[in-house]
Amino acid sequence: MDTAAALQIARGAAAASKPPPASLPGSDPQRLAAIGASVRKRLDASPAAERVPALSLDMYVVHGFLSDQECAGLIGLVDADAKPSTILRAGADPNIRTSHTCKLPGAHPLIAEVEQRMADLLGIPIAQSETVQGQRYTQGQQFKIHNDYFAAGQPYSEAVAKEGGQRTWTAMVFLNEPEAGGSTHFPRAGVKVAPRAGTLLTWNNLDRQGLPNRATHHEGMQVEAGVKHILTKWFREREWKTSAESDALRH
């Protein structure tokens, strides 16, 4: 599948001009910028990765990252354990995220293979990544505009800083194609990505100075017909260790 069939580039959208939020406690923007540059260099050199012409952020797409058989197996694992999705943001719209989510066990051979493949693609040690998540969106479900990076000064900031620091890159794979809707939309970057089974989308949540990038704010648009399944993995600044403290802040 060519990139044009999977990407709808909305020209003319401008990234936010406001200064980025402050860094998380203990975060090092220089180190984060170096991680971003290393991954960018690796993906630019990869014959499988195509750069997405996005405004003010680094984004790539890899078609055929997963086979149809792998996608089917992962969908089965997601459906077997999916529960209502949670969020960290205090006081957020209760309808901001209406999907179902599960953490997938790294001990499962298929999960282990896919997680390692993601880490190898980006060149980031797998120890610096969170447990991979599966998400399911049925008709009418969505995830409104949000960011994957962690902002400073929030109730969760200290907890997530202790468990591995800032999120760097997001890797997301579409496992199937709903009958209608369900695109991933980056309004400030001028990009809308339609779900295509087996296609991986990855982006740096930080700018080239290693600070949170508002151009990465995105939404999982409402599924209009059918069901959408995706797989998401977030990479961190340092080695990641799950935290009961941050888990307790989810609602």
How would you explain this protein's 3D organization?
The chain has 251 residues and is an alpha+beta fold. It is built from six helices and 15 strands. It has helices at residues 3-6, 29-45, 68-81, 109-122, 157-162, 244-248, and strands at 7-9, 50-51, 59-62, 83-84, 100-103, 133-137, 143-146, 167-174, 180-181, 184-186, 191-193, 200-204, 218-220, 223-225, 228-236. A hairpin with a 7-residue loop joins strand 2 and strand 3. The N and C termini lie far apart (38 Å). 40% of the residues are buried. Residues 9-17 have low confidence and may be disordered.
Question: Mind sketching the topology for me?
Answer:
Layout: H1 3-6, E1 7-9, H2 29-45, E2 50-51, E3 59-62, H3 68-81, E4 83-84, E5 100-103, H4 109-122, E6 133-137, E7 143-146, H5 157-162, E8 167-174, E9 180-181, E10 184-186, E11 191-193, E12 200-204, E13 218-220, E14 223-225, E15 228-236, H6 244-248
Antiparallel strand pairs: 1-11, 2-3, 3-12, 4-5, 5-6, 6-15, 7-13, 8-12, 8-15, 9-14, 10-11, 10-13
What tags apply to this protein structure?
251 residues; five-stranded antiparallel beta sheet; 6 helices; 24% helix
Brief summary of the model shown:
With 251 residues, this protein is of the alpha+beta class.
Report the major sheet: 8 strands, antiparallel
Percent helix: 10-25%
Unreliable spans: 9-17
β-strand percent reads: 15-25%
Number of strands: 15
The secondary-structure element order is: HEHEEHEEHEEHEEEEEEEEH
Q: State the distance separating the first and last CA atoms.
A: 38 Å
